[in-house]
Amino acid sequence: MIIRKSNMSVAVRQPAVFGWRLPAAGFFIYSIIAVGALIVDARSFLVIGGALMFVCVCIEWCRSIMAVRVDKSVLLVFCIMLLSVFATLYDPTNTVFHNLFKHVTICILYVFIFSMGLAPIYSTPFRSIFIFILVFMGFISLIVPNVSETDDVMRMSGFFANANNFSLTMMTLLFLIDEKKDSRARKVSIHAVLILFLLLSGTSGAILAYLGAMSFKYFVFLRASRKYRNTWILALLIIAVILLVCLLTTDLFMDVPIVKRIVTQLSLVWHELPLAASGYELDYGNLSNMYDTGDCSGLWRISHWRTCIDIIANANTTQLLCGYGIGSSSLIMYKVPHNDYLRVLMEQGIIGLTLYIAFFLTIFRRIDPGYRYCIIAIALYCFSENNMDNLLFMSIFVFFLASAQNRAQIQPAAAP
Fold first, then answer.
1. Helix (H) or strand (E) holding 321
2. pTM of the model
3. How far apart are CA 103 and CA 394, in angstroms?
4. Helices (H) and strands (E) in the chain, counts
5. 295: which residues sit within 8 A by CB, 6+ positions away?
6. Which single residue of 56, 235, 364, 393 has CA 20 to 30 Å from 26?
7. 80-111: string of b/e by CB count within 10 Å (b at 16+)?
8. Strand, helix or coil for residue 150
9. Do 34 and 49 form a contact (C-beta atoms < 8 A)?
10. Residue range 176-224, pLDDT digits in tens
């Protein structure tokens, strides 16, 4: 393997487009295997699908460059990967090894895709393959609905493990919108399909994350647009959003099940937050009766996070800095934290969380401002869900992160 360092003084070249052929084919194969495996509940085949996708990326990397491009983000990924290995060597009993392999695979996928200098995934003709797969998964989920009911909200998970995974996978449609070249009709169509799937999933965290990301996107657009530079227009828009939120809490909209569920969840967390954060054992049955809801998942998360923080606080110095090991949260707490920030802090320590934040901030600054809302959407959803061990989601997320920086890739220096 040749390691090449990025040289900012050399000529700029266009990012590679046709290098997406094998990664796209690998993702297609993995997705088809995943659909079949999840429908018949043969999850062991997911490993085969993931391995085939990884092999496809490795073959393309070997064919195209077979070198690692040294870069700040790549160095951060190597540090994250080595940290997880160190935590495993320090105490192997707390590591879930299939989670560790998945974690290392995701790190290597990023390094290989970034090193190949592929064009942004949303700007290549191969993105149609990804869009087709995701929409296909969504509509297969309509055929195999697997619906559960919570507070009159029909939550559809399809062939996925749960509705949260279904909504998370569908959110990757955001990574495939070409903000500069797509027609307005195409953009609206993709967002409409995504909103439909989010509403069918009934996942409050995903819906709020999408709304937060879109708010970020359009406020940034308004600030950058000469037509809307006046601050008083922004002030009027903020007031309009506040009025809209107030309107949604009226009886007119509270009859809409998904609105009622989200408002009830937020109200429950707002009023009972001190009790949940104190570590007091909650009576969820009594709370359900008080707030007329059958779902206290928002408040349960707060209480669960408190337990996670207590475990982190009682860690020894090495575990506090480097974590208990990949997958340790499910072993120690019997349930993952439902918050990826706390999960990273527990499994990879203060150093790991710092590396992750530095990694995402690096990419956030590099990519086109028009696509930063995609990272915002996932960052917000990570506050309430376990996203980083979902290989199907993480693979396309890594494809986006690694390629979106390559608007004008720097030609690597010649190998010595």
1. helix 317-322
2. 0.86
3. 10
4. 18, 6
5. 150, 151, 261, 265, 288
6. 364
7. bbebbebbbebbeebbbeebbebbebbbbbbb
8. strand
9. yes
10. 999 889 998 999 999 999 999 998 888 888 988 998 998 888 877 777 6
